[in-house]
Amino acid sequence: MAVGLRGQLGELCYSSGLLHSLQRVRSWLQKDLRILAYHRIMPLPDPTAYEFDLELISAPPERFREQMQLLKKRYNPMRLTDVAAALNDGKSLPADTVVVTFDDGYDDNYRIAFPILRELGVPATFFVSTGHIDSGRPYAYDWLVHMILVTAARQIVLPELGLDAALPSDRQGRRAIATDVLCRMKELGALEQAAMIQRLEREWRMPSDAAPTDCRPMSWGQIREMHAAGFEIGSHGVHHWMLSKLPQAALESEVLDSKAALERELGAMPLLMSYPVGSMRAFDKRVIDITRDAGFQLACSYMSGTNPEPASNRYALNRLAIERNMGKGWFASMLTMPHLMSYPTPTYQTRNGEEPICSH
After folding, report:
1. Do the Cβ atoms of 167 and 151 come closer than 8 Å?
2. pTM greater than 0.90
């Protein structure tokens, strides 16, 4: 798999043997908080056969283990609630603080990531969309990709996006269309996005309640086990809707109902939030105000970067995305030089010339 110039440079920096010295110097000079963002941990599939969104795969199991071993050896992995406590008390964070987070709540988080984290003693926060945990249904964006990849239809017609295109027979061509649709649809309101996906389910006769196990979320039983083992569970909304693109009543329900579900299943606990999609268009002051007023202590975005003064953006914390083609050297280099080696926040050029964020 091609890794590009950034990946090649990362591997070169790692093989030079200088990273550890650079890290030590950086820890003296800069005390920024680094938060890693993962989605799925699973063996890398054959792209020509895999029927879901490849971009959600953050690392295969063996690479994830390597990454966590590096964190354990050279950094100071912390719980997000401990970060919140330090901010509340006006205390500085320890040097080389790194937080591990997961978005969505896929069941491989329980089957694969959880045992590795528990074995190595690395804390992590799992942000889950509670409505999907309740229903067991797949996440809508991933299901949309699946439908586009496997439908027998030869045409995709989405008047909401001004799209009427032939569906190619090859998987790669269909993935390109799915990526385009995912990015364009995020210009729509969240309820319009949901309605568009539901309409395709009906037209193509592909109901999400009949989804295969490849894309299933965790169960509450699995989440309770992880929580009892000391891992943090936070909110990723109820339906994984873009919060800033909801009317006020629906926005309040997404935040408050997800909080109620977590407390129903896990009891009272410190509240943590990760905004679904997490781009600059997925949350705004209205979302931040409701999140804060609901009692959440911190909230993560999906904007790329570190947090030099996390007290100043505790409801819009930046994160560093981990992607499936990130080798050990690239990962190590990114932790040492995040502003140089991390993925930039992705953008997509729209028809009107604006650049919304295309992320999950």
Report:
1. yes
2. yes
